[in-house]
Amino acid sequence: MLITLEKGYFELGFSYVPPPVTVGVREDSGVNVWTTLDYELSPDYGLSLTGELYRPLWDLEYKTGQKVETTVSYRDGRRLSLAVTGALGHRFYIDKDTSGKDRYNDIIDLDLIFEHRSFTPGGSTRSKIGFLGGYLYPGDHHPYLLSNVIFDLGFTRNLTDDFLVGGNASTSAFWLGTKFEELKVRADARARITASDNLIITGTGLLEGEGEQENDDLVEAGKIELGISATYYFSRQFYTTGELKCTRLPQTEDAFYTSKGTVFYNNPDLNLRLSLRGEYLTPTNFREVPQIKAGITATKTFSSGLGISLNAARTYRSATAVAPEYTVGFSINQTIGFAGGNIFGQRYPSGTDHVSFIAGVVYLDENGNGIRDKGEPLLSDIPILLDRRRIRTDEEGGFFFERIRPGLYEVGIDPAQLSGEYQIITPKKVVQIRENENIFLEFGVTKSE
């Protein structure tokens, strides 16, 4: 249930995700109840309050949790955004002690996270610093202090009109009391070049490392991954993507290759979308035969955002599985997406669909200061370009690109299609999208003299 307010919204939700019939219950299955209040305190400051109750099904009788979260955000003309989030939670579960008896455990969680994002004419930067702490109260022992410190830094940069780069580095360290338990490090980089009007090529690199304390020994694990992908647009309605990736696991001295391809067809007149995908994984040390995956999805959407989807796929339960599984699904669904305090109709993802979106508005910058001031009107029918995808703003001045894959993107007003009565104030922006990440942007124009 969603209630829109003059300067925000109030949401009350309930979800129930049943466990699969077969062995192996997903950790995200269970009952979840939440409520959110998002409110604009002023044109620059926002407040978000969230409360959540959950009960996972992987041990329904004994595991419960509650969480309260508060976020205060600041935005400077959409060029700079800062956010401070504090959360307080409680978890309860039962496990076994060394003698095999039930042990009751309580955990009090206390989180504090600082986030930053800024846009410049040639790119963007973002950072996150957080402390995820708490106290563990085991039933037969004195309390433990839980400490998890996280750092996350990222950037994008437009080196030329056709060459974009971006990168991200993150680390997480965990202590139980004064004893170090685990360290995780991750770094990735992307470079994208527009080779022609119809061809975009992207190169990626990933490095992951993990060290875990086990019986006073440090157990190490990691992954190195290099990949290249290409997207070719035959037309605005028909395009295809291909990817080749090499993955190496140093701890097992294993390496394997993954190749995948997808063909997309989108008919905006009929609101119909088709995709055909295939994937091949070479044999590995822990799987002597290759995995061959395939799938097809057809989706029909309506003006309200309601979607009807048919999906058929050949998949595998895990990376080590030998026998394939075949699934056929049918869904009728609709959800609401939020970005920048705005509300958008969005189809619920099915299968391997991507749920990220890029949304925003175009406004008339009446004083030419490059910042959307209070009272400045939003403009309809303004052309927006996301790589080779073009749309126009709706009657309320908004635009919405959905089903965005992780990667680097250049977004901005299309000067070739813009009416001569306007001049562009806000330059194109380079953004890096991660899985399940949503971004809201604002672009300004002035009247031509």
Note down, in words, how this protein is organized.
It is a single chain. With 449 residues, the protein is mostly beta strands. Among the domains are: 1-158; 347-449, Immunoglobulin-like, CATH 2.60.40. The protein is 0% helix and 67% strand. It has no helices and 29 strands. The protein has a 19-stranded antiparallel sheet, with no helix packed on it. Residues 21-27, 337-341 and 343-354 have low confidence and may be disordered.
How is the secondary structure organized here?
Elements: E1 2-5, E2 8-17, E3 30-40, E4 45-56, E5 64-76, E6 80-96, E7 102-120, E8 123-138, E9 144-158, E10 163-176, E11 179-194, E12 199-214, E13 217-233, E14 238-249, E15 254-267, E16 272-281, E17 291-301, E18 307-315, E19 325-333, E20 335-339, E21 342-346, E22 356-364, E23 383-386, E24 389-392, E25 398-404, E26 407-413, E27 422-424, E28 429-433, E29 439-447
Parallel strand pairs: 22-29
Antiparallel strand pairs: 1-2, 2-3, 3-4, 4-5, 5-6, 6-7, 7-8, 8-9, 9-10, 10-11, 11-12, 12-13, 13-14, 14-15, 15-16, 16-17, 17-18, 18-19, 20-21, 22-25, 23-24, 23-26, 26-28, 27-29
Average pLDDT: 82
Which bin fits the share of residues in helices? under 10%
How many helices?
Answer: 0
- Chain oligomer state: single chain
For the terminal residues, how far apart are their CA atoms?
47 Å
Q: What sequence of helices (H) and strands (E) makes up the elements?
A: EEEEEEEEEEEEEEEEEEEEEEEEEEEEE
* Biggest beta sheet summary: 19 strands, antiparallel
The proportion of strand residues reads over 45%
